Amino acid sequence: MQELHDAPLAPLTTFRLGGPATRLVTAVTDDEVIAVVREADENGTPLLVIGGGSNLVIGDKGFDGTALRIATTGFRLDGTRLELAAGEVWTDAVARTVEAGLAGIECLAGIPGSAGATPIQNVGAYGQEVASTITEVVAYDRRTGETVTVPNAGCAFSYRHSRFKEDPDRFVVLRVRFGLEDAGGLSAPLKYAETARALGVAPGDRVPAATARETVLKLRAGKGMVLDPEDHDTWSAGSFFTNPVLTEAEYAAFLTRVGERLGADVTPPAYPAGEGRTKTSAAWLIDKAGFVKGYGAGPARISTKHTLALTNRGSATTEDLLALAREVVAGVREAFGITLVNEPVTVGVTL
Questions:
Q1: What's the pLDDT band for 232 if we cut at 50, 70, 90?
Q2: How far apart are CA 125 and CA 132, in angstroms?
Q3: CB of 333 within 8 A of CB of 339?
Q4: Contact, 300 vs 312, CB < 8 A?
Q5: In a 10 Å sphere around its CB, with 0-12 CB exposed, 13-18 middle and 19+ buried, how is residue 53 labelled?
Q6: Which of 16, 69, 160, 220 is an active site residue?
Q7: Which pLDDT value is given to residue 20?
Q8: Is 303 a known active-site residue?
Q9: Is 271 helix (H, G, I), strand (E, B) or coil?
């Protein structure tokens, strides 16, 4: 277990932003993770848990407390049952399941971060989300001081949300278990229209899982959503805002605003999101509100490849990033009456 003081946190995030932590501890076993968490809780020390750092916006002043970097390893495959240690690199784990001929998470390739973060955010992309394959989450419960196993039904998964995100100071994820599918090397049925089009098949069809993974990686790379240290479009947290889910009344008001601003013949993206609810596209809202790809004149700008990604062009501060985010939120609210919600977790700052 490594311990550093006044340790830079920016290199541990995909934004490469944020000040130092008073203390940074890197834990490589579950027991070490639990020991650090218990020590912080017993001493009343603020605790920041860091995995892959792909969903963090840390303030320029840093973190006055203990930052715990989870670097545990463990990939165990038993038939179609998969167990990942929280510190496993997610995209590498996806690649290994595809190599094993299993389906269920192949369209989640290229997502940066660690396995332990996936249930917290209910990570999803290209028609898949982990809620459909996670069977159990093993976590340390800071309230009871015990290690618990939470079944899928107890995770309260919803769109980019979970029980763990709802109560962020209670659980520290240690291991995640999945139930995958042996479809003879084929993918799960494709649910996302863009992926199906790219593959020349219809939604609902299956293709070789490796082909599905490769296609998703190409689609993500084209949007700057695959990490590349030489490409500032990837110095981001991926999608900075979640897609808004609207009630019937909110959606009707939204359509009125769209008609007033863009014309009665314009139809915004709309997807069913449960009874009486409709999901629309945050990227579409941002673009139509005037924040196009590459928008911004400072060191923090919208990606040149995707309007949903806010990026550090190399010399930005967290305040630069937040100023841009606030400008986008205000612009979309003024244009369409919808308030965008940030997807990354903020530490020491608020949007």
A1: very high
A2: 12
A3: yes
A4: yes
A5: buried
A6: 160
A7: 98
A8: no
A9: strand
What tokens does 31 get? 């027991």
- pLDDT value at residue 220: 95
Phi/psi at 93 (5° precision):
-65, -40
- Class of residue 52 by CB neighbours under 10 A (exposed 0-12, middle 13-18, buried 19+): buried
pLDDT, residue 237, reads 95
| Tokens standing for residue 319 | 């305040």
CA nearest to 71, candidates 12, 8, 141: 12
Q: Where are the beta strands (DSSP E) in the chain?
A: 2-8, 20-27, 47-50, 56-58, 63-70, 75-78, 81-85, 102-103, 124-125, 128-129, 134-141, 146-151, 171-179, 181-182, 245-247, 271-272, 277-279, 300-302, 310-312, 345-347
Contact 209, 203 (CB under 8 A): no
- Confidence class for position 175, pLDDT limits 50, 70, 90: very high
Q: How far apart are CA 231 and CA 314, in angstroms?
A: 10
239 is catalytic: yes
Distance between CA atoms of residues 142 and 120, nearest Å? 16
Helix %, strand %, coil % of the chain (to 5): 30, 25, 40
User: Given pLDDT bands bounded at 50, 70 and 90, which one contains residue 110?
Assistant: very high
CA separation for the pair 28, 130 (Å, rounded):
24
Residue type for 309, please?
Answer: A
Question: What is the pLDDT confidence band of residue 325, given thresholds at 50, 70 and 90?
Answer: very high
β-sheet bridge partners, residue 3 = 25
Q: What is the DSSP string of 39-97?
A: HHHHHT--EEEESSSTTEEE-TT-EEEEEEEE----EEEETTEEEEETTSBHHHHHHHH
- Does residue 196 contact residue 219 with C-beta atoms inside 8 Å? no
211 token code pair: 């082909």
pLDDT the model gives residue 99: 98
Whether 143 sits among the annotated catalytic residues: the reply is: no
Catalytic residue among 114, 162, 239, 303: 239
Query: Residue 182 corresponds to which tokens in the numbers above?
Result: 């042996």
Asked if residue 32 lies in contact with residue 49, where contact means CB atoms within 8 angstroms, the answer is no
pLDDT of residue 174: 98
Cβ(240)–Cβ(325) below 8 Å: yes
- Asked whether the whole model's pTM tops 0.85, one would answer yes
